Amino acid sequence: MKIIKTDYNNKDYKALVVELDADLAIKDGEDHSFYNQFNSSEGINNVIVIYKNDIAVGCGAIKPFNRGTVEIKRMFVKPEHQGKGLGSLILKALEDWAKLLNYSACVLETGIRQPDAIALYKKNGYLIIENYGQYIGVENSICFKKNI
After folding, report:
1. What one-character DSSP code corresponds to residue 101?
2. DSSP 8-state secondary structure symbol assigned to residue 61
3. Of 10, 73, 138, 141, whose CB count within 10 A is highest?
4. What CA–CA distance (Å, rounded) separates 14 from 17?
5. Cβ atoms within 10 Å, residue 29
6. Alpha helices, DSSP H only, in the chain?
7. Is 33 exposed, middle or buried (0-12, 13-18, 19+ CB in 10 A)?
8. Could you tell me which of 144, 116, 111, 114 has the C-alpha nearest to residue 129?
9. Residue 22, Cα to own-chain centre: how many angstroms?
10. Is the distance from CB of 81 to CB of 57 less than 8 angstroms?
11. Is 3 helix (H, G, I), strand (E, B) or coil?
């Protein structure tokens, strides 16, 4: 297993995000266009890609949210590699990177139709919070926060 730090220009990250967006289009259904407008990777300078046998199998990113907090974005593990702890490894790597950048908390949003994602975040110590920003009042969103 190898984890690299990169940015949104990484070709493996871009390929994984294409797969993520296709998966989310199915899970989000008619809400996909609403969520998709907030999921651009353009300008995200803190990206993690995880490799197994030199093949990119998962990714995640952080971007500044406010002075002490980053937002976790673009979390994805290829379906055939899910359930093996890779999501937790990516989250931990992102949290560690956020700490190095002097952030003290992470927030994130996921959809209520994504029970595996919700379970992953709860398992890793994320607590449900009131929906923030563009997700306020969005019934299909669930937001989380973790102090790191």
Report:
1. T
2. E
3. 73
4. 5
5. 11
6. 11-28, 32-36, 86-100, 115-123
7. exposed
8. 144
9. 15
10. yes
11. strand
How many angstroms separate the CA atoms of 6 and 30, rounded? 32
What whole-number distance in Å separates Cα of residue 105 and Cα of residue 95?
8
End-to-end Cα, the chain, rounded Å: 24
Tell me the residue length of the chain: 148
Q: List beta partners, residue 47.
A: 6, 61
Per residue in 60-85, pLDDT (tens digit) is 999 999 999 999 999 999 999 999 99
pLDDT tens digits along 3-54: 999 999 999 999 999 999 887 776 555 554 554 545 566 778 999 999 999 9
Residue type at 118? I
- 3-class secondary-structure state, position 114: coil
The whole-angstrom separation of Cα 52 and Cα 24 is 23
- CA-nearest of 60, 59, 57, 56 to 70 is 60
